[in-house]
Design brief:
By secondary structure, this protein is α+β, with helices and mostly antiparallel strands. It contains three helices and three strands; from the N terminus they run αββααβ. A three-stranded antiparallel sheet has the order 2-1-3. α2 (about 55-60) crosses α3. The longest helix is centred in the first third of the chain and has 11 residues, at about 15-25.
């Protein structure tokens, strides 16, 4: 079995909730500092688009980010869906 959260069944104090809220301000939709910037080239339109994260590119292409990661790690170098070429910046 997996580990259970030590907070399971407990509530954070008001002070702790305020501190957590303050620390998360500005994070919604913003790029995380560890995000990897990447460029996606569309071979059909011969255009390139830069994204601030792999997750952002995955949303734009309507695909799972794991598919992009797998394609980046692949040594075959085949375009994703026969159309997109990924490159980390």
């Amino acid at each position: 079995m997996g580990k259970e959260s030590p907070m399971l069944g407990k509530k954070h104090s008001y002070e702790t909730r305020v501190k957590m809220s303050i620390s998360l301000k500005g994070h919604k939709g913003s790029v995380q500092p560890h995000a990897k910037k990447m460029m996606v080239t569309d071979l059909e339109t011969n255009s390139s688009t830069n994204y601030d994260s792999i997750n952002e590119a995955a949303k734009a292409l309507s695909c799972p980010d794991s598919s992009i990661l797998k394609n980046l790690k692949s040594k075959k170098g085949k375009p994703y869906r026969g159309r997109y070429v990924f490159k980390l910046l």
